[in-house]
Amino acid sequence: MIRVLFVCLGNICRSPMAEAIFRDLIKKQKLDGQITVDSAGIGHWHIGSDPHEGTRKVLDDHNVSYEGMEARQVKESDWDDFDYLIAMDDKNVQDLNGIRENKDVTLSRLMDYVPNAKEKEVPDPYFTGNFDYVYELVHEGCTRLLEEIKQDHKL
Ligand code: 4NP
């Protein structure tokens, strides 16, 4: 099983959006028996919360399910339990590196998988309010990430 964890600051806007989109892509490509997905936040503020209403709305608009998802915080065992830690911005990467290191785990930014991406970081819609733009970026990032994982693991 290939295990992917998306990480942002609060785990209510960007990383749950990525988790929901990625799960949808995996399911549509019948890869749900080979890849698992989860998301977590650096901060503890929203533990147990549903995704932000802006994230829920844009996922509803695109018919992507977020059923049963609730926010949790990153924990040290995530470095044992996941193969990919996919961060939304540079600060997430910096924070993750400060929590633990494990050379067996791939730590990268979602937009690193998009060639010539117009943004290298996914801007935080909690502050910008622009959930539609973030959906566009996250969808592109997730699509490219899945292609890379399929190539690397010959799926
Ligand atoms: P996220 O957005 O990292 O994309 O989930 C945020 C949500 C909440 C907060 C910050 C960012 N906050 O400070 O509560």
CATH fold naming? Rossmann fold
Number of strands: 4
Element-level helix/strand string: EHEHHEHEHH
CATH class, anyone? Answer: Alpha Beta
Low-confidence stretches: none
Q: What profile does the largest beta sheet have?
A: 4 strands, parallel
Average of the residue pLDDT scores: 98
Summed up, the domain count is 1
Descriptive terms for the model:
about 160 residues; alpha/beta; Rossmann fold; four-stranded parallel beta sheet; 6 helices; globular; binds 4-nitrophenyl phosphate
Topology readout:
Layout: E1 2-8, H1 14-28, E2 35-41, H2 53-61, H3 78-81, E3 84-87, H4 90-99, E4 106-109, H5 125-128, H6 131-152
Parallel strand pairs: 1-2, 1-3, 3-4
Helix pairs in contact: 1-6
What does this structure look like?
By secondary structure, this protein is α/β, with parallel strands linked by helices. It has a single domain (2-152), classed as Response regulator (Rossmann fold), CATH 3.40.50.2300. The chain is 41% helix and 14% strand. A four-stranded parallel sheet has the order 2-1-3-4. 4-nitrophenyl phosphate binds next to loops. 4-nitrophenyl phosphate is lined by residues 8-14, 45, 124, 126.
In short:
The chain has six helices and four strands; from the N terminus they run E-H-E-H-H-E-H-E-H-H. Helix content is 41%, strand content 14%.
